[in-house]
């Protein structure tokens, strides 16, 4: 009989401090950079970007810190457990921030206090056949209307076998090749609960294919339709390690007091009911869809690779026709493009997104689902939302065990009032925001990392109000605790 033991005795820490928006994510940075540098067959744009998925995609840890930080996932990826032999991995951490600058990428957390502190504890149990997990977080916001609280921002339960998943979860979901923020689903809004499924296969000659779909609901309070359903579908194909193409679709439907569309209409919305429904009583859907691609070029020393990527999408579905054949067509065009150059410990990146159109609006202002693809005002897709143009760039130096990153952002938002025919009525004052941030990271030899940073920005026309100009800033510090496996099979 094999005996059981704690796989590594690194007790979880409940620190008081951890970083905020703009902080380095060393595990993600190192793992995904290794995948691109080594030219391994993989897809990177799917929504599941967990530690286990990264460990399964990588052939071997090239970074000493990765070898420790993802140690439990390496064990499971290389030697899958049976149903009776799960790995139970515990992680903990916390963050603190101070200032009045905006946050992004924090799963709906706007850190509304002048000083905000968070502490969380994460447990994940995974075998070769199932997975279950929970993340609990304690919050403290000095100067906020609700000074303390607790929440469960993420949980999951289901079956998992290699790349195949089936279950129910409330977890971060990111689609596409972007770095700052994709057009479809990203991590700036509250996680929503959903039933999901995913599968993938690596063919000898055709490369790797991954398909996933899910249906859930937007559970946060809304001013249009409560608890609308949300459907998403994603397809990825990497015929070679240096090329990946993908297609995604996200749809709002139903909700409290709203009739449900038929299954066929939900899967293929050929009758969006825009016409001949003045009372808005028929089933309706709000649609966004996008195509994306990335190309990774190997580069001669001292560079490692150059990656360029793009995403092209539309907000809502309108009907056109090719002769007598009705065809759905995208409206409200959004564009995203970026590039990343890596060489040793250095990385340079730039990304641009424009989500504006003369007639249709990105994410919001649907005739039924006015709040559109948002959770309490935060966008499920690009963090800066629609009617906006964003430039973002960064320089990172990460030689290990320390690193530093500097980034800049330039944002312009247009205040759209209404659309009359083909004419957009907008406020005269635009909102512009220019920010710069710096983050430093120290990787801990037992796993985990310290991160600290500062962001400074200047905004003009805040909320489209003339003369509402001023400086904003935010300081933050982060501790990511080392992983602790409390149960394993030592045979």
Describe this structure in words.
There is one protein chain. Helix content is 8%, strand content 49%. With 491 residues, it is mainly β. Helix 1 (26-38) runs parallel beside helix 2. The protein starts with a strand and ends with a strand. 43% of the residues are buried.
Brief sketch in words of this structure:
This protein is mainly beta and 491 residues long.
What is the topological layout?
Blueprint lengths: L2 E3 L20 H13 L12 H7 L6 H6 L1 H8 L8 E13 L15 E12 L3 E13 L5 E14 L2 E7 L22 E11 L3 E11 L11 E12 L2 E11 L9 H5 L17 E14 L6 E11 L1 E6 L2 E6 L2 E11 L2 E10 L18 E2 L2 E2 L8 E10 L4 E12 L2 E5 L2 E4 L4 E13 L5 E12 L9 E11 L3 E7 L1
Antiparallel strand pairs: 1-26, 2-3, 2-25, 2-26, 3-4, 4-5, 5-6, 6-7, 7-8, 8-9, 9-10, 10-11, 11-12, 12-15, 13-14, 15-16, 16-19, 17-18, 19-20, 20-23, 21-22, 23-24, 24-25
Helix pairs in contact: 1-2, 2-4
Query: What would CATH call the architecture?
Result: Beta Barrel
CATH topology: Porin
Number of helices: 5
Q: What is the β-strand count?
A: 26
Percent in strands = over 45%
Tally of distinct domains: 1
Report the span from N to C terminus. 9 Å
**What name goes with the CATH superfamily?**
Capsule assembly protein Wzi
Poorly predicted sequence stretches spanning 5 or more consecutive residues: 1-24
| Share of helix, binned | under 10%
Specify the CATH class. Mainly Beta
Largest beta sheet, briefly?
Answer: 18 strands, antiparallel, barrel
Radius of gyration: 23 Å
């Amino acid at each position: 009989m094999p005996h059981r033991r704690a796989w590594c005795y690194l007790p979880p820490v409940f620190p008081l401090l951890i970083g905020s928006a703009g902080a380095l994510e060393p595990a993600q940075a190192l793992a995904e950079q290794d995948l691109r540098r080594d030219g391994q067959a993989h897809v990177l744009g799917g929504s599941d970007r967990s530690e286990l998925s990264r460990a399964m995609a990588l052939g071997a840890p090239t970074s000493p810190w990765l070898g420790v930080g993802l140690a439990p996932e390496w064990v499971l990826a290389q030697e899958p457990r049976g149903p009776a032999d799960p790995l139970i991995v515990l992680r903990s951490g916390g963050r603190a921030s101070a200032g009045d600058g905006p946050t992004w990428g924090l799963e709906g957390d706007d850190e509304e206090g002048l000083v905000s502190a968070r502490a969380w504890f994460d447990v994940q149990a995974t075998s070769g056949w199932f997975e279950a997990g929970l993340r609990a977080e304690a919050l403290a916001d000095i100067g906020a209307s609700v000074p303390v609280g607790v929440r469960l921002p993420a949980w999951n339960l289901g079956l998992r076998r290699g790349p195949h998943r089936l279950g129910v979860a409330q977890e971060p979901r990111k689609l596409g090749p972007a770095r700052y923020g994709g057009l479809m689903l990203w991590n700036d809004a509250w996680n929503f609960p959903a039933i999901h499924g995913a599968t993938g296969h690596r063919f000898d000659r055709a490369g790797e294919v991954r398909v996933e779909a899910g249906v859930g609901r937007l559970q946060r309070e809304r001013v249009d339709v409560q608890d609308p359903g949300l459907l998403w579908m994603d397809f990825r194909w990497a015929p070679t390690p240096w090329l990946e193409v993908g297609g995604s679709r996200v749809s709002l439907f139903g909700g409290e007091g709203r009739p449900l569309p038929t299954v066929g209409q939900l899967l293929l919305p050929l009758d969006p009911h825009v016409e001949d429904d003045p009372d808005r009583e028929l089933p309706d859907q709000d649609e966004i869809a996008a195509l994306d691609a990335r190309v990774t070029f190997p580069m001669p020393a001292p560079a490692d690779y150059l990656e360029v990527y793009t995403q092209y999408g539309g907000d809502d579905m309108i009907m056109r026709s090719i002769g007598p054949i009705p065809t759905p067509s995208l409206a409200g065009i959004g564009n995203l493009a970026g590039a990343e150059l890596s060489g040793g410990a250095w990385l340079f990146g730039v990304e641009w997104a424009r989500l504006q159109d003369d007639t249709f609006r990105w994410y919001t202002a649907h005739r039924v689902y006015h709040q559109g693809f948002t959770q309490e005002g935060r966008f499920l897709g690009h963090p800066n939302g629609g009617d906006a143009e964003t430039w973002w760039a960064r320089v990172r130096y990460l030689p290990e065990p320390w690193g530093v990153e500097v980034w800049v952002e330039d944002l312009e938002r247009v205040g759209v009032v209404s659309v009359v025919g083909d004419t957009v009525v907008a406020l005269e004052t635009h909102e512009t925001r220019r920010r710069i941030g710096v983050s430093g990271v120290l990787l801990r030899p037992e796993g985990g990392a310290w991160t600290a940073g500062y962001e400074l920005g200047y905004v003009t026309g805040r909320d489209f109000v003339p003369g509402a100009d001023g400086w904003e800033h935010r300081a933050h510090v982060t501790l990511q605790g080392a992983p602790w496996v409390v149960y394993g099979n030592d045979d």
